Amino acid sequence: MLEIKNLNAGYGEIKVIKDVSLTLQNGSVSVLMGPNGAGKSTLLKSVFNITDIDSGKVFFEEEDITRLPAHALLEKGIAFVSQGRVNFSTLSVEDNLRLGAHHVQDKAEVDSRLEQVYKQFPILKDRRKEYAFSLSGGQQQMLAIGRALMSKPRLLLMDEPSLGLAPKLVKEVFKKIIEIRDNFDATILIVEHNLKSLMDVADHGYILVQGELVAQDTCSKLKNSPIMKKVFVGAFD
Amino acid sequence: MISTYLIHIAIIIVIFAILAASLNLSLGYTGMINLGHIAFYGIGAYSSAILTIRHDFAFIPAIICGGLIASVFGWFLTVITSRLKGDYFALGTLGFAFVAYAVFLNWTSLTRGPLGIPGIPRPEIFGYVVRSTSDYLTFSLIVAAIVITFLWLLTRSRYGKLLEATRDDAVGLQMLGKNIFRLKYQSMMVAAFCAAIAGSLYGHYISFIDPSTFYLNDIVILLTIAIVGGLASLRGSIAAAIIIILLPEMLRFVNMPPSMIGPMRQILYALLLILILMFRPRGLFGKVDLE
């Protein structure tokens, strides 16, 4: 589904990702973990081509997508939910969602996708006429995810969806993520700090330390591994 | 006599309503703090005046050419300021207005410099000359209705939402695969086109233009209208155009030496702006905070 091969990337002179290779299984929820500054977000952004890629390749369904611009990636079925609930604050909830499918010309198709997103997040339908900034933190995160879903992604990249949410809401967002995988038939890659709750629901885990991939396994195996303990207690920091 | 005066005021209000509404497209909807909008107004006025007087253009082609010329400058302004953000962008656009003023003033072979261009003919549309001021009011109302309806439809369309999204979160919109630079220059070009139409309306009404009409004084009036009316609100721009143009007119009926009227106008505008910023930071109908 997604294959990263020997990727080296960063920002200008700063090299962050060092020779990372990984493969995502179709229909899986994978979580990218690691200490602060390990390059988790950078790896995610590199897939979406918003970092400087020095070498290596990214393949999406056997197709080379390294250095494709954002609009091409979106049309291919890759969506990115960035860190910190990016919404268009003075547009209505519905307009925010529609922007996610702005590249789709077929109005009926957009409307049906909208209904699908509303079915996934009923609260957004209740508040569809309200400004995005008036939503609560959890609802804003759902709006950001909902907007990404409007492009009917087959690969959904999420950068810390739990950031700044109450623990109860975090669980709800994670539950939604699993539902999304099933209802929208999407493969999901998440960068997360909030490890415990996500480890229970995700399929695969990848651990990144200082830009290098140090471990990868199924979450059930990783959970009790010594390297996970090191991540938990911050031995890498 | 008094009615002629009122009609004159009404025409100026209509012209400023078009101007402010078009400024709101780039300033309010797209979030580009454009302080140089008056330059497009001037470019429109000069273009259509020169085209009709020296090149025998009919009114409609002249006004459209004026709009197109201003659009080209709108594109140019966005390109040269594309790396500027926030206050620096505002200053850059303000600089553009001063450069335009300097060109109007110094390119004497084209604009006659400080002498201005007199004798701009009244518009002739399909053989009908809009001669009387009351006809001109009707005529400008029709033009304003067309321009503002167009802007209104534009801002409500799918495309309009993209412009608003550019204002709310440009990077977020880039993540959705949209070219925000293109959206910005398109918005600026449309705004410039509409401003140029207002400029032509002004020139063909007053029948005389000189550089001083397109300088700091009118920048202040225009921005006051946009801010008092509220960002991202077309009806706000229209309402504020009425208030801001009428307000200083009242000074005429107060016994005051003429030398004081000018400064009093400025004081009134300043006072109004301060009050708005203190008590109603979104203006009359605005939905976006001033930043």
Measured between the Cα atoms of the first and last residue of chain B, the distance is 44 Å
The amount of helix of chain B comes to over 70%
Please tell me how large the radius of gyration of chain A is: 17 Å
In total, how many domains does the architecture of chain B comprise?
1
Please state the oligomeric state of the protein chains shown. heterodimer
Which band does the percent of strand residues of chain B land in? under 5%
Structural class of chain A: alpha/beta
Can you give a write-up of this model?
The complex is a heterodimer of chains A (237) and B (291). Chain A is an alpha/beta fold. Chain A has one domain: Rossmann fold. Chain A is built from ten helices and ten strands. Chain A has a six-stranded mixed sheet, with helices on both faces. A four-stranded antiparallel sheet of chain A has the order 2-1-4-5, covered by helices on one side. The longest helix of chain A has 18 residues, at 167-184. Chain A is globular and about 45 Å long. The mean pLDDT of chain A is 88. The longest helix of chain B has 28 residues, at 2-29. In chain B, strands 1-2 form a two-stranded antiparallel sheet. Chain B has one domain (2-224). Chain B is 73% helix and 1% strand. Classes of the chains: A alpha/beta (237), B mainly alpha (291).
In short:
With 237 residues, chain A is α/β, with parallel strands linked by helices. Chain A has helices at 40-47, 70-76, 93-99, 107-120, 122-126, 137-149, 167-184, 195-201, 219-223, 226-233; strands spanning 2-11, 14-24, 29-33, 52-60, 63-64, 78-81, 155-159, 187-191, 204-209, 212-218.
Any descriptors?
heterodimer; A: 237 residues; alpha/beta; Rossmann fold; six-stranded mixed sheet; four-stranded antiparallel sheet; 10 helices; 10 strands; 27% strand; B: 291 residues; mainly alpha; two-stranded antiparallel sheet; 12 helices; 73% helix
